[in-house]
Design brief:
Strand content: 15-25%
Number of helices: 6
Radius of gyration: 16 Å
Structural class: alpha/beta
Distance between the termini: 32 Å
Helix content: 25-40%
Shape: globular
Largest sheet: 5 strands, mixed
Strand order of the largest sheet: 3-2-1-4-5
Length: 206
Amino acid sequence: MILAIEAASTDPSVAVAAPDGALLGLDGWSSTPRQAHELLPRLMALLVGCGGSVTRITAIAVGTGPGSFTGLRVAMSLAKGLAFALGVPIVGVPSLEAWLAAEPAAVGAASRAGAREAYLLARDAAEPRIVDREDLPRHGRLVAPVELAAAFELEDSLSPVRAAGSVAAAAARRLRAKPGGDDLERLEPGYLRLPRGVPPALAEGR
């Protein structure tokens, strides 16, 4: 089984999938950064609910951002800890790509980058970019966390609460091509830029 964690926003999700990426269980919710402690209990409850156990875990998948600094650090730490303890591969998957994969009708995915800015990955773009709230697409639906949609007045947006399923599916594809997954020590979130007051050394874990 593949365990997947996606916590690049205040709408995190966890998933359990078969080794081929077929979704077995999914749990997503809206939260605050201070509720990051819910990730592991929800993930373990989901695993048990799917009839699994830690002995059946074959890989860990985790969203790499960009998005919430706190959410990404907590999710990455949890994912790395599980992969190390269980001796299984870990795979990092770009979060906004997973958001779009989970919501095929969306024209783009947006996560918070600041008080007035967002990380935006358009459906036809290769990489996310930082845009002002006024430059976010207003035609077509965006995948965006509930708090961002409310703050930036994004109408008819879609929450990324199903994204962990896409993280798991992407990890399964990667593992077929590269069975060893990513380097456990070198895998880090992709921030695009750091929050104010956070020195590069801290973000790099030094």
